[in-house]
Design goal:
The chain is mainly α. The chain contains 7 helices and 2 strands. The protein has 2 domains: 16-137, Arc Repressor Mutant, subunit A, CATH 1.10.10.10; 138-176. A hairpin with a 7-residue loop joins strand 1 and strand 2. The radius of gyration is 22 Å and the shape is globular. Pfam families: MarR_2. This is MarR family transcriptional regulator.
Length: 176
């Protein structure tokens, strides 16, 4: 087999692999949509919390700079009033607290309490244990290959998303 025929053969079989990946992503999307990992963690650690509470804690990790209700709502892509209700509930449970901003005393910041930090660490530990259970029969080479390729896959998707978002922002800018 020549190099060009080998490349042609790979290209011809690629749609089947792409279709298989697409099918697997659909299955994964169902699992993610059902929030299996997060719901299991909450059931084991904090049965009184809702998955949206976990979303708030996760969003806070991803915000650079001061964490406000508005920033949380923006990251979660929810209405600010919904974000405010979620934060208020977590404050009432002692998981979060409000502080005045050092930059602008009129602005209220959202901060995890010590209890919130402990809760988040326990939830992460349960999530890691679930993943460890799924991956326990994989050898080191499989884990290395999967983690490297999965990271590449996710990064490429993020890049496409960011490019699309940037293009949308440019289309929305008024033409002068």
């Amino acid at each position: 087999m020549t190099v060009s025929s080998a490349i042609r053969a790979r290209k011809e079989s690629h749609p089947d692999r792409t279709a298989r990946i697409g099918d697997l992503l659909a299955r994964m999307r169902l699992l993610i949509g059902r929030r299996i990992i997060g719901r299991t963690a909450l059931a084991n650690i904090a049965p009184g919390l809702d998955i949206s509470h976990l979303d708030v804690l996760d969003a806070m990790r991803r915000i650079e700079g001061e964490i406000t209700v508005g920033a949380i709502a923006e990251v979660l892509r929810i209405d600010p009033s919904r974000g405010s209700r979620l934060v208020a509930d977590l404050v009432g449970r002692g998981i979060l607290r409000r502080e005045a901003s050092q930059e602008d005393g009129r602005r209220s910041l959202v901060v995890r309490t010590e209890f919130g930090d402990t809760l988040l660490a326990e939830i992460r530990a349960v999530k890691r244990a679930l993943l460890t259970g799924v991956l326990e029969d994989w050898d080191e080479d499989e884990l290395e290959a999967f983690s490297t390729l999965f990271e590449k896959f996710i990064c490429d998707f993020e890049s496409i998303y960011l490019q699309a978002e940037k293009a949308q922002e440019q289309r929305a800018e008024p033409k002068v």
